[in-house]
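Page 47, continued from p. 46.
Same chain as before, 202 aa.
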Amino acid sequence: MSAREAPAPESAGDPIARFQELFAAARARETADATAAALATAGLDGAPSVRMVLVKEVDAHGFRFFTNLGSRKARELEENPRAALCFHWPTLQRQVRVEGPVEPLPGEEADAYFASRARESQIGAWASRQSATLSARAELEERCNRVAERYAGALVPRPPFWGGFLLVPERIEIWSGGEHRLHDRELFHRQATGWSMERLYP
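Result:
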């Protein structure tokens, strides 16, 4: 079929709702952490970098993740506020790719998520100078010990250098595994009036 004869995109439902159904199923069935996703960013030089992050909350506004604001990913997002996420759930034979602009989350949202973390993770957030050079493991352990002593018997507040981001999806692709590599790929595009969907060859 030529490009001129290519079918028009189909009308589509809400891919966020589809994602949330898959997300719930993955959290119930996957042996690994189903909230883990690969996050791709790029700075002003255009060189891509990717790492795993935990995406704990998704709603109609987008996909939320948190990090040290001095980290490489945070610096790149400040320079180039666009990103892509990829979730892979092998038990479900599903993969979801998300692309769009990224914006900082309000401090109160970061406070609420930080308060929900394990105390050890809160202490680690204070101790880590994420992405900076570490001379020895003992240095990190000592920094953790000092933070633990500082907040002994008290709540650990959110560090001022730790916060969150919201990826606002413009494109969402839902990949479903098929026999003989004849996978199903649904690509959703955000439009002014909602979402459109087109199918892609595997």
